[in-house]
């Protein structure tokens, strides 16, 4: 949707510049009349208008052709402006005839009329406006995104191999180790029996003699 709106603005800007150029070329002729000395600028104004209108139709063909047509239109408008302003410069440098009914000397021209001055002013304003409006369309052409189909680029990077996670050590099933070979336990040594305790009979001691018998 945005792209279609951008294309419409480009075409309208070029066509608007063409219409402005055509009207600007007619104003000196309409205001000053056919006897106006600046009426001939209608020809370069018309050439600029045709170039602008053509640019509005063929701007999709590329930036180069749009730039060439805009250059042709701008060159025609600049030529028209120089042709108009050459007349007052010539009158200022060579001089002009005196006001009628005084006779005009050979090689001199009459001064600019009010219609000629007014037509030159309007034509100059329209020419500058046409250049700016056309430049807006040219700027959009150079900035817009190219939508033409382009061949896909070849893949330059190697394909990415899928990542395989390392097995978790805790999740790995631990196989039970076989029990070690049973070693026969050594037989306990027999305990040595001690002889039974025999009480020895002590000899009886003679009874003590009493002291009375001895006396």
Present the secondary structure layout.
Layout: H1 2-32, H2 42-58, H3 63-94, H4 114-143, H5 211-214
Helix pairs in contact: 1-2, 1-4, 2-3, 3-4
Descriptive notes:
- This protein is an all-alpha fold and 215 residues long.
- 53% of the residues lie in helices and 0% in strands.
- The chain starts with a helix and ends with a helix.
- Amount of beta strand: under 5%
Return the average pLDDT rounded to an integer. 76
Are there runs of 5+ residues with pLDDT below 50, and where?
none
The dominant shape is: rod-shaped
State the end-to-end distance.
Answer: 161 Å
Task: Report the count of strand segments.
Answer: 0
Structural class: mainly alpha
Give Rg in angstroms: 61 Å
For the sheet with most strands, the description reads:
none
Task: Please count the helical segments.
Answer: 5
Q: Spell the H/E element sequence.
A: HHHHH
The helix fraction, in percent, is 40-55%
What's the short version?
With 215 residues, this protein is mainly alpha-helical. It is 53% helix and 0% strand. It contains five helices and no strands.
Descriptive terms for the model:
rod-shaped, 0% strand, 5 helices, mainly alpha, 215 residues
